[in-house]
Amino acid sequence: MQFNTLRLDDIVVHRVPGRGEPGATGPLLSEATSPRDPRVFGFFRQRLSGVMARKGLPVEPDPAALALDATVGTVMTAVRAIIDDTANLVTASQTIAQRLWDTQDRRNPAGILVVARGSIDDLACAGILKLEHERGVQAEQETNDRGQLVFRVILHDDLLLTDRTAVFKGAIVRIAGPTDNALVSEASDLQNLRDVAGFFLRKFLGCKLVDDPPEATRKYFEAAEDFVNSEVRDPEKRARYEGALLAQMNSAVEAVDPDRFARENFDADEHQQFLDHLSAKGASTRSFTKDTSRITGRIRRISYGFRSGIRLVGQPEAMADHVEIATDEAVGTRVTITDEITGMKGAG
Amino acid sequence: MEYSEIVMAYQAELDAYVQLAELARRELGTAVREAGVHAQAITGRAKDPTSFGVKACLGRRYKDPLSEIEDKAGVRVVLAYERDVRAVLDVVRRRFVVSSVERKLDALDYDKNGYLGTHVIATLTGEQVAGSPELAGLRFEIQIRTIAQSAWAEVSHAQLYKPAAEVPDSLKRRIYRLVAVVELFDDQVEQFLEEAARTSGYRESVAVTGMDELMARLGSTRLADRRLTSEISAAVVPLYGTEPAEVVAAVADFAHINEDGLRNVIREAEELNAADINPLTAQPELPMLCERLENDRINVEQAWPDQVPFEWLDDLAEKWGLGRKPT
């Protein structure tokens, strides 16, 4: 999805209190669409596209979950109704807000839920954005001139300064093409990446990731390693980048953020090249939950192969501590191992 | 031929010359635009029958005025700079079949003042007249002028030729003395451009300023801030590693491909109060920044000028659907 083409034509704002909130018995539902305020619409569009661009992952309805519990299809059914006819927006968004309330537990804080109808890539779409503890945004209950309850959204005076650490959960669903009415969906969750596969994605949206974390991790690792081996010429850099990649795979951090990884480990000129390479290889350039179960055997040790046939194998940490690789114009690649020999033996 | 015969004969051909002038104007307008030259105005006209008749009869200079008078259809191009006159002349030579070029200054003795400008006599190419064979071989005149030359020509024409009474020579001399000022003006501007081009950041800034028209086409009506353009272009244009003119072409290609997204971002900014917009969304460098964010983000972030808030760039990245920089 090209997020810069996202347009929100109509939005409905509901308030979903926390389960532990005194007196809370369900969501506070708007009965009409919000008045068109360019600041508010622009803010929601930007935040929805922004969060999706960084954390959005392709998702699809989960038939297994649906088979166990028919209610998990509630949100996607409502989304379909919104996409099919904008007249359904208010009632369908109420259904979605109710579903959010039903699936949340006491750990989920209060927030406002924005359900929108618009377009992306010039195709009809629906957007869902949940904001929690947003310092720059308030929703005030009021009655419109037709006597309907609505929430008026009040934004911080300076939109550029509006708290960017706010917590969002988001999803965009659009039709597949001008003549293809199937739905294409992406969902994100900044609060807790693992949670994408949990409450928000599975229980609330009734979906699952198109690429599960082991598959997404495998694709990423293979594409990243391919980049290092095919696009990076300098042996010293190749060794450094491969070491960084294995360190990333072996670290305790639960998420992979390719952009952050490239920023922290690659030279500036290779940053975009790396992301483009990931895209070309079908790997995610956005953050995803790391699960190395499918590549366990390939990330424990680092292996350097040489033209002479010599192969140098070791654990990434030991390589980083004891092996130095440099380019020497006179001799080619100079590899220096600073260590103590503890044994020698012939090999087959 | 007498006056009335000449006028009637010309009137019989007038429709063709009206058509010729319009076709030549359109062709030249497209060619000038494609060459990246900004013309202040390109106009076309067929000569008025009365004016043609008078020209044909005055002084009895023409044996066959219908074939000898070559400006029955005319196109006029007015340009800001003398250097653009040369560029447009090149365009004309490539686009049309040129039979003569007259640079009026060259025809003047060194101690004489007079009308400055460049006149070209040309015909359309076979391809250009494919849909209108009756225009084949018909000549038209192209006048290429700077703004200063045009101003002098307009004023002198109005004051020296239009009044019913003859103006005394002493007064005429005053008008003709001004031609020297026109020549001096254009020379000074050329010198300025040459020296400015050697000034750091100037060429980059000029390249970006040329993107104004693109922004207008995409729906932007807000006024850009030139200081911001200067700061940003000096930092970002060099990232392309090519000549500024090539940057403009690359950005135009990007804008063409991403027109929906750019229109979306601009439309959203247009709906907001000035106090609420990200100032970058009103700048001519907006498409360039979106292009760099999409294709070379880390370098544009690193090159970002200290004087311009980084938050504006990060906010633009989010507006452009790329998300903010990881924190």
Explain this structure.
The complex is a heterodimer of chains A (348) and B (327). Helices cover 37% and strands 28% of the residues of chain A. By secondary structure, chain A is α+β, with helices and mostly antiparallel strands. Chain A folds into two domains: 3-210, no CATH class; 214-337, no CATH class. In chain A, the strands form five sheets. Chain A has a seven-stranded antiparallel β-sheet, sandwiched between helices. In chain A, strands 5-6 form a two-stranded antiparallel ribbon. In chain A, strand 14 and strand 15 (332-337) form a beta hairpin. In chain A, helix 3 (74-84) runs antiparallel to helix 4 (89-103) and helix 8 (235-250) packs antiparallel against helix 12 (316-322). With 327 residues, chain B is an alpha+beta fold. Chain B folds into two domains: 3-170, Beta Polymerase, domain 2, CATH 3.30.460.10; 202-319, no CATH class. Chain B has helices at 3-34, 49-57, 65-68, 82-95, 104-107, 147-161, 169-197, 202-209, 212-217, 226-236, 244-257, 259-271, 286-303, 310-319; strands at 39-46, 73-79, 97-103, 118-123, 139-146. In chain B, strands 1-2-5-4-3 form a five-stranded mixed β-sheet. In chain B, helix 1 packs across helix 2, helix 6 runs antiparallel to helix 7 (169-197) and helix 8 (202-209) crosses helix 10. Chain B is elongated, with a radius of gyration of 25 Å. The chains are: A alpha+beta (348), B alpha+beta (327). At the A-B interface, helix 1, helix 9 and helix 10 of A face helix 12, helix 13 and helix 14 of B.
Give a brief rundown of this model:
Chain A has 348 residues and is α+β, with helices and mostly antiparallel strands. Chain A has helices spanning 38-55, 63-68, 74-84, 89-103, 193-196, 199-205, 213-231, 235-250, 258-265, 268-280, 296-299, 316-322; strands at 7-16, 57-61, 111-120, 123-132, 137-143, 149-155, 167-177, 180-189, 207-209, 255-256, 288-289, 302-305, 311-314, 323-328, 332-337.
